Amino acid sequence: MRNKLIVVAEQSSLRADPIEFEIGDTLDVHQRILEGDKERIQIFNGVVIARSGTGVAENFTVRRIVAGEGVERTFPIHSPKLAKVVVKRHGKVRRAKLFFLRGRTGKATRLTERSDKVTKSE
Q: Of the four listed, 15, 21, 47, 103, which is most buried by Cβ atoms within 10 Å?
């Protein structure tokens, strides 16, 4: 249970447009990078393996394989450094944390694509 005063104070720092994604989704995370006095966008793509925290302290971890090595980055969801997050595909998972992917290499790291069922419109 969080203090109500802290929740009210954090409301101004929350992102106006919430990012919609789930565990197992493959994302392109566009992050603003400052180099000297120039600003550029760097894209980090990978699979979401974890999501934790609440409010301003909410984070998500993205994992990808680069040159045979696993690389993980943790991003704060409400950070102004995040330009945008693009969902490339939805993975079908049955876990809240996908840390078991750390021990896998090659084709074993692939997740099957989720096919969402269309709900009946009234």
A: 47
